[in-house]
Model the fold of this input.
Amino acid sequence: LALLPNRLVGELRIKLLRKAGATIGKDVHISRGVRVIGARGLRIHDDVSIAKGVTLDARGGLQIERGALIGFDSVLLTQTHASPAINVPVHHQGTVAGPVVVGAFVWLGMRTIVLPGVVIGANTIVGAASVVTKNLPEKVVAAGTPARVIRGR
Ligand SMILES: CC(C)(COP(=O)(O)OP(=O)(O)OC[C@H]1O[C@@H](n2cnc3c(N)ncnc32)[C@H](O)[C@@H]1OP(=O)(O)O)[C@@H](O)C(=O)NCCC(=O)NCCS
Done:
């Protein structure tokens, strides 16, 4: 597979994801090394670009709206461990899920982490290596851990 041209591998990857239950629009680019968990919950609109090494966890429902760019090595999480009890292994405590929406024309810088349940408004930019813990409005630049709005656009 490594010897095939990127474009062909990309088209094959999209075909396989659609077969696995994902909804993927036109002119979508999914790079090498992108991991998808729970393809049935994944909806990617037209003209979206997902860079190398991104993890898309769609178990809780993940929607990426048109024209968005997900920077390399980013992780979008829609399910995680529940942790109500102490003295009990976290991996025995079940899970909690929350859908994530990445708005149209959003740019997530490289290594962005988005936690379950977060909605990122259209045209917003998130700085490299940020952790997005809460919803972000549209048309802002946000950065840091936790991601905070640094200016408007
Ligand atoms: C978020 C970003 C777009 C902001 O660029 P900018 O508008 O030129 O912002 P500035 O460089 O003027 O920084 C504004 C403030 O935000 C801080 N900041 C910028 N990026 C940050 C980041 N990723 N994390 C934390 N703080 C950040 C700056 O330190 C500065 O803080 P200060 O006002 O206290 O000095 C840019 O810094 C960034 O992270 N781009 C992503 C690059 C990338 O990931 N490319 C490859 C992936 S496709």
About this structure: The chain has a mean pLDDT of 96.
